[in-house]
Write a structure and sequence with these properties.
Helices cover 15% and strands 38% of the residues. The chain has four helices and 18 strands. About 4% of the residues have low confidence.
């Protein structure tokens, strides 16, 4: 039986999205991997596969699978894409998206297109990604460490920050922009490091400019995916880390430029006075179709 899906991307981070609010969609590991494969003739593959399910606690529940088939609790760009779909269906400017990690608020700001034109429009969506967690148990880590200065060193990288944005992140700040390309060597290695019992998303970031007008260049390795065009929760983790290291101010949007191929995707993030992290950037509908599951 053919099942409808929407193919979307948030700043290049792409998703296959199934709407299971009326008709359930059940996927096993091999099905997720097959549908997510880049050589799939219908879906053309994705970074994450999303299933929208009903919930009384929000407008929609978002179930998230990485391309390797593993289910995860958070995805910032997918939250913004699913928020976009829900706002279009209800013709409103905000929506609540529940995940296994949190219930997140999304708001919309279109670029020259009305809500009715969402299929042909590129727009900006902001998601409140909640309050980051820094305790070693919440990330989680295998044993207690100072998560703001983690005793971890590899390939000349050291002194990272670990944080949970609903999923685990480790962030290295480097003094030269060319060092961010070491992600190719350390991403897969650290993803399976014993310090991270549930794996980890690895980011290397270079901060330029002052605390108010600075910007971030970064590369990220997503657990279960690898190199992706962008990663929303990683952008949030890097912004939070830069604030903790006093490299950037908190309650101001800063641009994060993702240097994964294709390079140049941008997101923006800020941290408000109460500690909530906001992720802001473009979403786009690529195409719709049906696929046999």
């Amino acid at each position: 039986m053919n099942t409808p899906f929407i193919k979307m991307n948030g700043a290049g981070n792409d998703f296959i999205i199934f709407d299971a609010r009326q008709n359930p969609v059940h996927l096993n590991l091999s099905q997720v991997r097959a549908l997510s494969a880049r050589d799939h003739p219908v879906t053309r593959g994705c970074d994450q596969l999303i299933v929208m399910e009903p919930t009384p606690e929000a407008d929609v529940f978002m179930r998230i699978y990485n391309a390797d088939g593993g289910e995860v609790n958070a995805c910032g760009n997918a939250t913004r894409c699913v928020g976009w779909i829900m706002m279009d269906k209800k013709k409103v400017g905000n929506a609540k998206v529940k995940t296994n990690a949190d219930t997140l608020q999304c708001e919309i700001n279109l670029w020259g297109a009305g809500l009715a034109g969402w299929k042909d429009a590129t727009g900006l969506v902001t998601a409140n990604m909640g309050i980051p967690k820094f305790s070693w148990q919440d990330i989680p880590l295998s044993h207690p460490v100072d998560t703001l200065h983690v005793p971890l060193e590899t390939e000349g990288l050291n002194d990272p920050i670990c944080v949970s944005m609903g999923n685990p992140h480790v962030v290295f700040f480097v003094p030269e922009i060319n060092l961010i390309h070491r992600i190719e060597k350390v991403g897969a290695q650290l993803q399976r490091h014993p310090l991270f019992p549930k794996g980890v998303n690895v980011s290397i970031a270079y901060v330029t400019g002052n605390s108010l007008s600075g910007q971030i260049f970064m590369r990220v390795w997503e657990r279960g995916v690898g190199l992706t065009a962008s990663c929303g929760t990683a952008a949030c983790a890097v912004k939070v880390g830069a604030v903790k290291r006093e490299l950037l101010s908190g309650d101001k949007y800063h641009t994060l430029t993702l240097q994964n191929p294709p390079a140049g995707q941008t997101l923006m993030s800020r941290v408000d006075k109460d500690g909530y992290v906001f992720l802001h950037g473009p979403v786009q509908v690529e195409f719709e179709g049906t696929v046999e599951i």
